[in-house]
Write a structure and sequence with these properties.
Helix content: over 70%
Strand order of the largest sheet: 1-2
Order of helices and strands: HHHEHHEHHHHHH
Number of helices: 11
Number of strands: 2
Radius of gyration: 20 Å
Mean pLDDT: 76
Largest sheet: 2 strands, antiparallel
Structural class: mainly alpha
Amino acid sequence: MEWLTNPEAWISLVMLTVLEIVLGIDNIVFISIISGKLPHHQQKKARRIGLGLAMITRVLLLLSISWVMTLTSPLFNIGEWFGMEEGVLFDKLKISGRDIILIVGGLFLIYKSTIEIHEKVEGHGGKAVKNSGIISFSRVITEIIVLDVVFSLDSVITAVGMADHIEIMVAAVVIAVLIMLVSAESISNFVNHHPTVKMLALSFLLLIGISLIAEGLDQHIPKGYIYFAMAFSVFVEVLNLRVAKKQKQI
């Protein structure tokens, strides 16, 4: 526990906690949209279980960090299938366990977002609520678990690069999830009560899914670009909501 008296360790804890919250926003959005398909009395429970599972998943991955880091070792190279010669492109086609998880997670996120957008556009969004029950609740939790693994993997690898002590990493994850638990209901209510915001959130999930696939194919997209685009879109949407509110008052 020597890190408790180290100022740099405390700075790492604060910075890592903030980063975990930022990286967890997409997780909250996904959980909010998926849980919104359940009956109202089950939504809060689903959000809490989802975020609780996210925390448990991240802590377990941190405690098995040596195994997580082996996921970055190449398993095979797609270039070999096409008889490509070694080079920059050949190196980029190396696929590791982490890449497979990111690609599968990205495809799953794109699939779910596309289905949700299709339901909203076609006007069949109420079907899931009418048919919801124990099976629907189980399916929602299963989908949350799948995405928790993908989001947690990205978060854990980031944490390893920012902190030297496992205690700091675990503390940052726990603090971040507790903060997200407090804010999850208000974020969920806001998203679900504003159709245009929900559509924007689904578009963000599409963007994140594409970035996960690109990351899995070793095409790194700086997260700063993605978060700036998302923040700018939210700013424009806030202006639209204010204009719509004023027009209703006239």
